[in-house]
Design a protein that fits this description.
This protein is an all-alpha fold. It contains 15 helices and no strands. The protein has one domain (15-337).
Length: 342
C-alpha cells in the first residue's frame, strides 16, 4: 500500500513538474507580445481554413486506424475500422491530459473491447511509431535540403551554445559515456551469468510473457501480405498532416505568404513540441512554432503567437471533442447495446 502511494506521489510530482514547464514555456512565448494585437488576430482570422485543416486531421486519423488494423489483422485478430478509429481518438484524448499516455490508453481500450492481448497491441503501436519516426526523419531531411540556408542558420543558432559547452567539457563527457557503457556491459554480463537463477522467480515468467507478446506485435510488419498498402497509408497520414499544417497559414495575412514547403518545416520542427513530455504539448508547441515563424520566416511576433495559439487550440479541441465522443460510444453505448442483447 505504501509503495503504491509513493509511486502515485512520484507520478503526481512528475506530472506537475512537466505541466509547470509547459506553462513556463507558454509564458515565455507570450509575455512580450501585445495582447491587443494577438486578440485582434484571433478575432479576425479566417477560420474556414482551420476547419478544413481539422477535417484533414480526421482523415489522417482514419488512415492511421486503417494502418493499425493491418497490423492487428496480421496477428490473426479481426477488428472493425470504426472501432480502431475510436480507440485512436481516445488515445489522442489521453495525450492531451497525460503525455504519452495515449499509446497505452488506445491499446487498453481496444484490448478490452476486442479481447486482444494488450502487449501484442502495444507491440504493433511500437512498429507504427518506428515508421512514423522514419517519415519524420525523411521530412526533416528534405526540409533541410530545400531550405538549407534558413533551417541551417536556425539550428546553428539554437545548438551552437550547447555544442560549444559540450566540446569545452569533452573529457568529462567521454568519462561519463565510458562509465555508462561499462555499467551496461557489466549488467548484461551479470544477467547472462545469472539467467538460470533469474528464471526461478515468478516475475520472470510474467515479464517474459509480456516481452514475447510485445515482440509478436513488433514483428507483424514482416507478416503483412500487402506491405505496399501499409507504406501508402503511412505516406497518406503524413501528407494529410502536412495539409493540416498548411491550411491554417492562410488564416492570417501575416502568414498567408508561406508555401507548402514552409508548412513542412513547421510540421517537422513543430512536431518536437507535440512529442515533448508536457500535457498536450502546451507551451512547448507554442514556443517552437512561434520561434520558427519569427526566426525563419520573419513573421511578426504577435501574428506568430496568434498562429500558434489558434492551431494548438484547434487541434486540442478536436482531440477532446472527438476523443470524448469516441470514449462515450466505446465505453457507454456499446456496453448498453451488449447488455440489451443479453
Amino acid at each position: 500500500m505504501k509503495q503504491k502511494i509513493k509511486k502515485r506521489l512520484i507520478q503526481t510530482i512528475e506530472y506537475l513538474f512537466f505541466l509547470g514547464l509547459g506553462i513556463g514555456l507558454l509564458w515565455l512565448s507570450f509575455y512580450k507580445l501585445d495582447y491587443s494585437e494577438v486578440k485582434k488576430d484571433i478575432l479576425s482570422a479566417d477560420y474556414h481554413w482551420l476547419f478544413i485543416a481539422l477535417f484533414f486531421a480526421i482523415v489522417s486519423h482514419i488512415f492511421r486506424a486503417l494502418r493499425w488494423n493491418m497490423l492487428i489483422n496480421a496477428m490473426g485478430y479481426k477488428t472493425r475500422v470504426s472501432t480502431t478509429f475510436f480507440a485512436v481518438m481516445i488515445g489522442y484524448l489521453a495525450n492531451t491530459a497525460v503525455p504519452r499516455m495515449g499509446e497505452f490508453m488506445r491499446c487498453g481500450v481496444l484490448s478490452k473491447k476486442e479481447k486482444i492481448p494488450f502487449n501484442s497491441l502495444f507491440g504493433t503501436v511500437i512498429s507504427e511509431r518506428l515508421f512514423d519516426l522514419l517519415m519524420l526523419a525523411l521530412i526533416m531531411f528534405f526540409v533541410i535540403i530545400f531550405q538549407l540556408d534558413k533551417v541551417g542558420a536556425y539550428v546553428s543558432d539554437i545548438f551552437s551554445p550547447l555544442m560549444n559547452s559540450l566540446f569545452s567539457n569533452l573529457s568529462s563527457i567521454l568519462i561519463l559515456l565510458g562509465s555508462i557503457i561499462l555499467f551496461f556491459a557489466i549488467s548484461i554480463w551479470f544477467v547472462w551469468r545469472s539467467r538460470e537463477w533469474i528464471k526461478s522467480f515468478r516475475l520472470y515468467n510474467k515479464v517474459r510473457g509480456f516481452i514475447d507478446g510485445l515482440m509478436e506485435g513488433i514483428k507483424t510488419i514482416m507478416k503483412l501480405e500487402k506491405k505496399w498498402l501499409f507504406i501508402i497509408y503511412t505516406l497518406l497520414i503524413w501528407l494529410f498532416y502536412a495539409i493540416m499544417v498548411y491550411m491554417p497559414v492562410l488564416m492570417l495575412k501575416d502568414t498567408a505568404h508561406l508555401n507548402f514547403v514552409d508548412a513542412l518545416t513547421i510540421l517537422a520542427i513543430g512536431s518536437l513540441g507535440i512529442v515533448a513530455p508536457v500535457p498536450g504539448g502546451i507551451g512547448a508547441y507554442h514556443f517552437i512554432v512561434k520561434s520558427i515563424l519569427v526566426e525563419l520566416y520573419s513573421v511578426e511576433a504577435n501574428a506568430a503567437g496568434s498562429f500558434a495559439a489558434i492551431t494548438h487550440a484547434g487541434q486540442t479541441l478536436l482531440n477532446v471533442i472527438v476523443g470524448s465522443l469516441s470514449y462515450f460510444y466505446m465505453m457507454v453505448i456499446t456496453k448498453s447495446q451488449k447488455a440489451s442483447n443479453e
